[in-house]
Amino acid sequence: MKNVKKGFSLVELMVVVAIIGILTAIALPMYNIAVKKAKTQSAIGAAQGFRGPLMAWHDEHNSFANLSFSPADNSIRMRTLEGAQINIGTNLPSQRGLEWTVETTGTDTLSIFVINFDFDNDICLPCSGRWCIACELDETCTVEVQITDTDFSGAVNPLIDLGRGENSCPP
């Protein structure tokens, strides 16, 4: 009578567990980077939705004056001559751990509108940044994005490689 073994040996099971561990160690960091890129791209996309309305506003007024930001509903509003507040574009999305702020600056020849997006460190450490539109008086507008590099000291930050420019927003 032959002794037929059924099942796997302990060594075979340990090899399978080791392979799964190695694959997990490779995949987890890549997954985390993909999640951070998605969060950053989402914020950039939301800010990008204001490009058309802001350019139209600048074409009509030659500045970003009379625009304000309402943190209560994350909306950018214009003040009419009668003092009414009218939303332009759609509201910036509300997300847990994400704060939006807006700032405007300008000179005689250049108007700048900046939308800052700031994630809590426990949500997404290197995902914060700023979306800028700079319009000159000749109506040429450029849009630039800067991602804050806080997590990759000395190393290449994969979030910067979004094809949107690096450290190009005005201070």
Automatic annotation (TrEMBL):
Pfam families: N_methyl. The keyword Membrane applies. Keywords: Membrane, Transmembrane, Transmembrane helix. PROSITE patterns: PROKAR_NTER_METHYL. The chain crosses the membrane at residues 7-31. InterPro entries: N_methyl_site, Pilin-like. It comes from the Bacteria. This is Prepilin-type N-terminal cleavage/methylation domain-containing protein. It comes from Acanthopleuribacter pedis. The lineage of its organism: Bacteria, Pseudomonadati, Acidobacteriota, Holophagae, Acanthopleuribacterales.
